[in-house]
Structure formats: C-alpha cells, structure tokens
Amino acid sequence: MLRANLNDETDWAECSEFWRTYSTPQKRSGLKKKHRRREPIILCGHGMRIRVDHNTLLIRAGFTHYPQKSEEIRYFPGDPNIPDRIIILDGSGGISFDALNWMAEQQINFVQLDFRGRANFICGISGQAPKPDIVQWQLGIRSTETARIIQRQLVEQKMLASIETLSAIFTNCPSTKIAINQIRREIDKIRKLPGSAAYRTIFGLEGTCSGGLF
C-alpha cells in the first residue's frame, strides 16, 4: 500500500516501482466494474514520438506553431480511460514496434491520415478487422442525404475550429479578421445548401475557405 507522505528516497523508490510494474488488474467476480470512457486521441504536427517507457505508453505531441512547448502524455496499462484510437493527422515523427505491441495489448487502434483525410495506414486491434456493423452502416448511407448531412456538419465544425485557432494564435495579425469573415461567409453558404447538394460542392466551399486563409 502506498503511503501519502513520501519523505525519503525509500518511499519514492517504492512508489516508482509500483507504477513501473503496474499492470491490468485481474478481474474478480462480485466487484463493481470501473467506469470506462474510451475516446480517441488526435495528434498532429512535426516531431511526434510514440514509444514505451517503463511499461507505459509515452506520447510526445508534434509542434504545430512557434513558440510552442513540448507536450507529453503518458498512459498506464489497464487505465479505464485509455484511448480506443490514436489518430495521426498528417505530420512527421516516429513510433516504435514496442509501442505498436503495447497498443495491441491494450486494444488501441492506430490510424494515420493524410492532409485530405484519407487513411494511409490502419493498425487494428490484434489484427482484427473493423466492426462489420459500422462498415455496413457507412456503406449503406453512401451517396444519400444522410451522408451529405454528416459531411456538412463535419466541414462546418472544421471551419468553426479554424476560427477559434485564428482568434487564439493570430490575435494581432491584420489579416485575421479578414480570414474569419471569409470563413463565416462559407459557413453560411454550407448551411443554406439544399439536401441534394453533391459532396463535391461541400468540399469546394471548404477549399475556398482554406484558400482565403493564405
């Protein structure tokens, strides 16, 4: 049992050894299950690193702007809130084989997307395929109004996030206000599109918006 007050090197050594050897708790009948909230983690930027450090998964996020502090995230085996997916959005860096094995043991999917959102690489849980029911649903709504509604929502959310990013990072830039106004005009156009609008039209508005940022 860990003590609350760590006053000497012996206590620190015991604490460190506990976390170093920490593993998934064994299931025992009659005990209430831990709350699990597994959500994906999304990484981007340059210089990303994913590796195993003392039986934990250590993630170093990439650099997206200057100045920016290095950010590290550490996950322990068996954590009930461990991510179910690690998604890489177009960037640079590296991942070790040990990290891939660790993720497979903890049932974490690894996905790499290019700048267009297309999957370059997908590493499933212990070699398993995607869930058939989800794949079937995605195929079933393709080229339907439901799919176009989802596309419009995703593009609109991306544009709103761009406004937040510009407002937070480029506060004193003279062209920030111009870019934000351009994004808002494109958002209005998306909201006014008819339900039958083709996905190319939606992505065209997104492209116009991106061009206005540069």
Summary tags:
single chain, 214 residues, Ribosomal Protein L15, Chain: K, domain 2, 6-stranded mixed β-sheet, 6 helices, 6 strands, flat
How would you characterize this protein structure?
There is one protein chain. This protein is α/β, with parallel strands linked by helices. It has 2 domains: 36-129, Ribosomal Protein L15, Chain: K, domain 2, CATH 3.100.10.20; 134-212. The chain contains 6 helices and 6 strands, in the order H-E-E-E-E-H-E-E-H-H-H-H. The protein has helices at residues 9-20, 97-105, 132-141, 145-169, 176-191, 199-212, and strands spanning 41-53, 56-60, 72-75, 85-95, 109-113, 119-123. It has a 6-stranded mixed beta sheet with strand order 3-2-1-4-5-6, with helices on one face. Helix 4 (145-169) runs antiparallel to helix 5. The longest helix has 25 residues, at 145-169. Mean pLDDT is 78; it is low at 1-7 and 23-29.
Helix-strand string: HEEEEHEEHHHH
What is the third-level CATH name, the topology of the largest domain? Ribosomal Protein L15, Chain: K, domain 2
Globular, elongated, flat, extended or rod-shaped: what is the shape?
flat
CATH superfamily of the largest domain: CRISPR-associated endonuclease Cas1, N-terminal domain
- Tell me the CATH architecture of the largest domain: Ribosomal Protein L15, Chain: K, domain 2
Q: What number of domains?
A: 2
> Cα distance, first to last residue?
57 Å
Widest sheet: strand ordering: 3-2-1-4-5-6
> What is the averaged pLDDT score?
78
How large is the radius of gyration?
Answer: 22 Å
The CATH class of the largest domain is identified as Alpha Beta
Tell me the number of helical segments per DSSP (H or I, 4 or more residues long): 6
Helix content: 40-55%
Strand count, sense and closure of the main sheet?
6 strands, mixed
In total, how many beta strands?
A: 6
Sheet/helix structural class: alpha/beta
Ranges where pLDDT stays below 50 over 5 or more residues in a row are 1-7, 23-29
Tell me what portion of residues adopts beta-strand conformation: 15-25%
